[in-house]
Specification:
Elements (H helix, E strand, L loop, with lengths): L1 E12 L4 E3 L4 E2 L3 E18 L5 E4 L12 H17 L5 E8 L9 H21 L6 H11 L11 E5 L2 E5 L8 E6 L9 H7 L9 H17 L3 H21 L9 H17 L4 E3 L6 E5 L4 H10 L6 E4 L9
This protein binds ligand DP6.
Length: 325
């Protein structure tokens, strides 16, 4: 059996819209923070059956994963791609799970495809007798399965642009405390892959690559200067820009529920009252990611004392670490 784990990542500048669907090439560069304790684990087990099989990985530290037919097919087709690359014809059982709820805007596809690619490549190298390729190559294979997964190979920050993916660091911003406000653990109705296609039908998509480029340059500038407020402003504008594409495409959909809107309004009110607060972003899902610098302990305490916390759950990326083997 071969096993691998990989972390998830949350984009501050989003990958949304593809210039090449087949190889998951993005229409704009993206920048993400690697959420090192939110992880997926994959086991690959040889078996004698005629086809590869997916099943949830059974581990008390992980949520029992329930992939629908389409999700299983996408996952196993990536695994087949890896087998083909190494000329392997044997069949395997692929087990996977995450230590956080899946398909709810917590980028489970990033960690699960990165973990599958790592375990798959290691397994196929051993079975075929090939040398294990370097991480850069494994990351490119992973991108073919799910674009955002290529950023999970780098930390604390990953920049994915036309030259590839590379790690970045920003003094003062490398050890952010990340919390997830779980508004809903229901599976989302529109997948990220569908969203990538649909956004192109929005009139707002015209100009989107240019806006994302400019915002990325400004965000990198703000983070280099350790300007937290500007970082908040740019991240806010960025996820709202992406969600505006969702609600203005020709088959409109929305992930921002009244509950998430209430939390977002609370965040805006908190920032305007305190001139400080968390950096916030949302992925393609209802849940809200908030980030704090280590020296914001007091303001964070104040934030949580006022937030109507009983209405939803919080996953603390720091606290989850102890429970994962
Ligand atoms: C909203 O990587 O899940 O999370 O390449 O089709 O698998 P595919 O899409 P995926 O898209 C992620 C979109 C996003 C933003 C981001 O992570 O940059």
């Amino acid at each position: 059996m071969w096993s691998a784990i990989a972390p998830s990542n949350i984009a501050f500048i989003k990958y949304m819209g593809k210039s090449d669907v087949a190889s998951n090439l993005p229409t704009n560069s993206s920048l993400s923070f690697t959420t090192k304790n939110l992880i997926s684990k994959v086991n690959i087990i040889p078996h004698k059956g005629d086809i590869d099989i997916w099943r949830p990985l059974d581990d008390e530290n992980f949520f029992t994963l329930d992939l629908n037919e389409f999700e299983q097919a996408k996952y196993l087709s990536h695994f087949s791609r890896i087998k083909e690359l190494f000329g392997v014809r044997d069949n395997f059982i692929v087990e996977s799970s995450n230590n956080f709820p899946s398909s709810t805007g917590i980028a489970s596809s990033a960690s699960s495809f990165a973990a599958l690619t790592k375990a798959g490549v290691w397994a196929m190298c051993e079975v075929s007798g090939a040398d294990v390729p370097d991480d850069g190559y494994i990351c490119e294979i992973s991108r073919l399965g799910s674009g955002s997964s290529c950023r999970s190979f780098f930390q604390p920050w990953a920049l994915w642009n036309s030259a590839g993916v590379k790690e970045l660091g920003f003094d003062g911003f490398n050890f952010l405390n990340h919390q997830l406000l779980i508004i809903s653990s229901e599976k989302k109705l529109v997948s990220s892959s569908q969203a990538h296609q649909l956004v192109k039908t929005s009139l707002l998509f015209q100009g989107r690559p240019e806006r994302a480029k400019l915002r990325l340059e400004r965000l990198i500038g703000a983070m280099k200067k350790q300007d937290w407020k500007e970082t908040f402003n740019l991240c806010w504008a960025e996820f709202m820009d992406m969600h505006a594409l969702f609600v203005t495409c020709n088959k409109p959909f929305s992930y921002i529920s009244s509950k998430s809107m209430a939390v977002l309004n609370f965040v805006l009110g908190f920032w305007s009252a305190n001139d400080d607060g968390p950096v916030v972003t949302m992925d393609a899902g209802e849940n809200i990611h908030i980030f704090w610098r280590p020296n914001q302990a007091d303001v964070k305490k104040e934030f949580f004392s006022r937030l109507p916390i009983e209405d939803f759950g919080v996953i603390d990326n720091e606290k989850i670490s102890g429970s994962v083997r």
